[in-house]
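Researcher: Checking consistency across runs. Here is glutathione transferase again:
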Amino acid sequence: TAMAAQEEGWVLYYWPKLAGRAEFIRLVLEEAGEPYTEVNDGIEAMFFQGKHQEYPALAPPLIRKGSFTLSQTPVICRYLGRRLGLWPQSEDDEWHADQVNATIHDFICEGRLAFHGKDFHASYFTQQEETKPYIEKFVKERLLRFLGHFEATLKANDGGQGFLVGDSLTYVDLALLHALRATEAQFPEEWAAAAEVTALLRAFQQRVAARPRLAAYFRSERCKPFEGNSMM
């Protein structure tokens, strides 16, 4: 029944053993204090062998509650943000949050693509040598451009001392937190070298990650490690 479905917790389906795109979703659920279960088994069969029977979904991550399912990471985060109280307070801020969210996912997508310069769908480990020039090009031409944009975006709201939009935390702040953590994990030397031009972002990362529920999550076994390639 509908009531029974509402009483069920969220289920998150994703590949095992890595943060990946699902980390965007985990951060929203964790900050909201929303119970969820993560399922990592049977993902290939579910999405690539036709055993996913609900509303069609191309690939994980996917969330489920009762009979309702939803895929596509930025869509899931917007949906959960609105449902769980991590939503901008004005219409203008809603649209600006949407804009920033799209740019964050562009950033992660470009970063991932750089690690798959020969074959986007093949494992990075099958093309490590061939894709080195693409990684170098991303670092040289795109990494600081994106980080500089995020620094300016943060500064545009209250001088960068608070959040990306408005005066309270929203889903897009959590998306930026993950993007910054992924950048630091994937490109530690470049991240360190960019300290002067990312001062606001670093302070933002520290204060958001220190929020009690997020800090507890990062210390827990629920927090998956970064894979070490593809900003994943």
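Researcher: Does this match what you'd expect to see?
Model: One thing to look at in this run: The longest helix spans residues 91-114.
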